[in-house]
Amino acid sequence: MGYIIREVKDNLKRYKFSNQVCIWSITMTMLIIGIFLLFAVNLQIVINDLRERVEIVVFLKSGVDSRRVSQLKAKINRIDNVKSVKYSSPEEALIEFTMDSDLRKQIEFIGENPLPASFSVHLDLEYEELMERVAGKIEKYDSVDEVRYGKEEVNNITKLVNTVKFSGLVLVIIVGIMTMTIIGYTIHLAVHLRGQEIRVMKLVGATAWFIRLPFLIEGILQGCVGGLLSAGLLYVVYRIILTKLEGIVFLPLYYLAVMVIVGMVFGLAGNFIGIGSHIREGRAGT
User: Fold this and answer.
1) Per CATH, is 55-149 categorized as 3.30.70.3040?
2) What is the pLDDT of residues 62-81, one digit of tens each?
3) CB under 8 Å to 32, separation ≥6 — which residues?
4) Domain limits, the chain
5) Residue 119, H or E segment
6) Environment class of 204 (CB within 10 Å of its CB; exposed 0-12, middle 13-18, buried 19+)
7) What pLDDT digit, counting tens, does each position of 131-172 carry?
């Protein structure tokens, strides 16, 4: 183990250029991923806020007494995925509507309260099929006059979430392959310069993993440094640009930890690929 540690230290000193190329490749890759994560985290906050506003509105028939209102509320609460049910009397609905000056003028022109009692129903999962299914069940209950919900809004939110998830997966795959290719090629050149040394090690009986291990440790170190640098640069970008936008939040700590870990995986994989062709029997140093 002492030999491997000394070898790693020597390689980091002797091959500064290749190490810097690997580190900055990982840094730029993780910075791109970090920017996307920053966008995704803040978009998720917006989406959650929109989901909180999406609701099923249940309008009741006129003349429904308090006993039937309580029974209907209990029935709705028993439906799967219903998170909350809020009752609004005609008087409460009138107070809310008259906060808008135009609506207040229209109601004053009518001369009476035209608004019915209603329930606002929120679900624990908002997607089109579920909203439609729950709304269909509620519509069949007695005392229910009409059921409305933001079908188009729910559909748009669902599409947006799926698009972000798919785009993130594609981005990680593309930049990951590019990074590992760059690192692999860089390590391949560095190993080529050490071909004689590797041949000697194989001649004296060194196993493939004994030869490979220092490179893999270097890859992990490169990934760790690259991940930390990318996290730092991402914070600089956030402080300089994004803090000027109201409500933008920085990545939670565990996201930054994931960035460092993913950087280490990229560094490990890139070095594994780069050293591979030189470890095969009969081709070391070619």
Assistant:
1) yes
2) 878 888 888 888 988 888 88
3) 171, 175
4) 2-49+157-279, 55-149
5) strand 118-123
6) exposed
7) 888 888 888 888 888 888 776 776 777 777 788 778 878 887
